[in-house]
Amino acid sequence: MDKFEKEMAQKLKNLPGHMGVSENLKEFRNVISHELPENVPSNTFRKLIKILLQNKPIDAEQIRKVYLEPLLRKENKILDKNKAKFRRLKLSARKWVKNNLSEEELQKLWKEHKTWLPRRYTIYKNPNVSFQKIAADTLARFALINHWNIV
Question: CA end-to-end span of the chain, whole Å?
């Protein structure tokens, strides 16, 4: 988890807070903050944050088509190709999260900007998915793709 948190903090270090961007850029900021896969290279995060910081109108849908959709397709292929390994990692991550991070603690850490684990909560169709499940899924995806260098 520490590796994940450090890597995400580094990738998102220059991203302004929600209140630090104009209303017309909030959707684009959310793409960077909540939609890009954790395994996206740092230079992609930096490039998109640099575009955001220019404070010019952005077509968030175009950004999704160019930057997000290809990355999500790649991530889905990796997860599909490694279903059994991913399933085992998710079970292991769920046990670890359950034993180490209560739902209340995760909610608090998220609100205090002390964890990135539930950052992609928007990928879940059900808005009531627990942060524990999101955290476990996040750790499993991160481990599968990064730890085993699967690309």
Answer: 21
Q: Give mean pLDDT in consecutive 10-residue pieces for the chain, a chain of 151 residues.
A: 87 89 91 89 93 91 91 88 93 95 94 89 86 93 73 45
In this structure, what are the phi and psi dihedrals at residue 16, rounded to the nearest 5 degrees?
-70, 155
Distances in Å between the alpha carbon of 88 and those of 39, 80, 91? 19, 13, 5
Q: Which pLDDT belongs to residue 149? A: 52
- Is residue 103 within 8 Å of 15, Cβ to Cβ? no
14, 53 contact by CB (below 8 A)? yes
At residue 18, the pLDDT reads: 82
Q: What is the pTM of this model?
A: 0.82
The three-point CA angle 137-146-29 to 5° equals: 65
Q: Half-sphere exposure of 91 toward its Cβ, with a 13 Å CA cutoff?
A: 5
What is the residue type of 128? Answer: N
Number of helices and strands in the chain (H, E): 8, 0
